[in-house]
Amino acid sequence: MSEKTKSLRSPLGVARGLGSAKSGFEHWQLERITALMLIPTAFYLLIGFLNHVVAGGYSGAMYWLQSPLSATFALLFLLAGLRHLTCGLQVVMEDYIPKERIRLPLLFVVKFVIAAMAILGSLSIAKIFFGV
């Protein structure tokens, strides 16, 4: 018998389930959804924050962030932005860092730092909202 046996499966059947197409669509879709979430929240925060900083300075901005709607939009903006950042950095690292022994620990560190930023940002918004 020859070492190389011919498979009865088609090339598409062999390739199915392998490579970047395995979970690429969900990743692509998540990037688009977070980008769309950032647009209205950024406009709301930018307009509201500038109106209150110009009118009342630091105390006006803190008063504005203590409203439930503003705090909710700030939290949504923070979390959507950090998730969008995570997706984008992961794609860049997967595409441009060929060695897996370097890429995986670096990806872990990046995700850990972004998770820490999410926790600290959420606690900061909560502190301002509750007036602690």
Write the layout of secondary structure elements.
Elements: H1 11-15, H2 24-65, H3 68-96, H4 100-130
Description:
It contains four helices and no strands. The mean pLDDT is 88. It is 81% helix and 0% strand. The protein has a single domain (24-130), classed as Fumarate reductase/succinate dehydrogenase, transmembrane subunit (3 helical TM bundles of succinate and fumarate reductases, Up-down Bundle). The chain has helices spanning 11-15, 24-65, 68-96, 100-130. The longest helix is centred in the middle third of the chain and has 42 residues, at 24-65. Helix 2 runs antiparallel to helix 3 (68-96). The chain is mostly helical. The N and C termini lie far apart (78 Å). It is elongated and about 75 Å long.
Low-confidence stretches: none
The CATH class turns out to be: Mainly Alpha
Q: What's the alpha carbon Rg, rounded to whole Å? A: 22 Å
Characterize the overall form. elongated
Helix tally equals: 4
Order of helices and strands: HHHH
Q: What do the pLDDT scores average to?
A: 88
Distance between the termini: 78 Å
CATH superfamily: Fumarate reductase/succinate dehydrogenase, transmembrane subunit
Beta fraction of the residues? under 5%
Query: How many structural units, i.e. domains?
Result: 1
Number of strands: 0
What CATH architecture do you see?
Answer: Up-down Bundle
Structural class: mainly alpha
**What does the largest sheet look like?**
none
The CATH topology annotation reads as 3 helical TM bundles of succinate and fumarate reductases
What is the share of helical residues? over 70%
